[in-house]
Amino acid sequence: MEEFIKNKEKLINEQINATIDIKDEFGIEKAIGYLVGEKFYSLIKEFQYLQKNHKDKTETINDFRLLVLEGSKRIMEIFAEDEINNYFKLNPRFGSLGHVVTEDEHKLFVEKGAVEHTIDTEIEDTLIMGEMKKYLKISL
After folding, report:
1. Fewest Cβ atoms closer than 10 Å to its Cβ: which of 41, 97, 119, 134?
2. Burial readout 46-70 (b: 16 or more C-beta within 10 A, e: otherwise)
C-alpha cells in the first residue's frame, strides 16, 4: 500500500501544477472546477470508500487522510477563502463533467443515460460535498 500512497501523492502534485496552469490560462472558475470539483471530489470519494470498505487497513486510511489534509492545504494556498466559498455556493455539479458542460448539456447526458442522476447519487454527492467543505474549512 505504500506504493499506492506514493502514487497518489505524485498525482496530487501533478494536479496542483496543472491547476496553476489552468488558472493562468483559463481563470479561477475553470481551475477551481478542475481541482476542487473534479480532483478533490474524486479524492474524497475514494477516501470515503476506503473508510467504509477497508476498516481493517487503519494505516492506509491514516496515510490517505494525510493526503487529503495535504491536498486541502494546497488548495487553500492556491485559492482564496471567498473563491472556494463561492465555488460551493454556485456550482451544482461535481465530477469530471461538473465544470466542462453547461446545465443543458448535463441534462441531456442524464436524459440519454450517460450520467446517472438519482436520489442515491444526490445523497452521495451531498455527503462528499460535506467532507470536502470540512477539509477546506468551509462553514457547513
Report:
1. 119
2. ebeeeeeeeeeeeeebebbeebbee
